[in-house]
Amino acid sequence: MSERPFLSLVIPAYNEQEVIPMLLQRVAASLLQVGRPFEVIIVDDGSSDSTPMLLEEAMNRLQWLRVLRMAKNTGQSAAFEAGFRAARGHVIVTIDADLQNDPEEIPRLVGLLETAGVDMINGWRKDRHDTPFRRWQSRMANRIRNRLSGETINDSACSLKVYKRHCLEGMFMFNGAHRFMPTLVKMRGYTVQEVPVKHSPRYAGTAKYGFRNRVLRALKDLLGVRWLKSRYLRYQVSELPR
Fold it and tell me: Based on the structure, what is the number of domains in the chain?
């Protein structure tokens, strides 16, 4: 762990005991394909099941695994920020723990980040394997989000994202920020490319977010992002030489 990794994979996890073993297996196989040093940071967001025990056991045999333990369940935005602060990689990748984001997509997206000349790759779950109601929720949320924020992103809330490190350094995070990362990165003057990615049915367990905390709360957050975007400071300055 003394060598600074090329890639840091940040994964929030909350009560995912059924998923953790397969998640670690698939993540390892995928990241080995990148062919560069990596670390995986799983942020245990105050789990009350066997997730902490499984992660502690895995740390004893997987040198690339790091585990952060939140004192209590705080939500995805806080978990992501904790992971970003701990990450040491030049490239930072995020996925959900539920394996609906395929870890096998990571090598392709990391390669694209290096060749496309952009600062961030945002996954787009173009063909979603969710219930019709959940797909409808996401369509409506993205339409409203784009209308009010002046965006064109199809799937801002997809957790499969790849960043160059400078996109996240010093970024102001807030509760709900994980749904608006492409907009927040663009506000800082960086470039974002959206790429269709595979989306799979949930491997095991149950979804942790329902209609109220996925849509109604997101609308309130969106109004805040719209205000922040309209008031964001943009300027260029240089100091005169002596």
Answer: 1
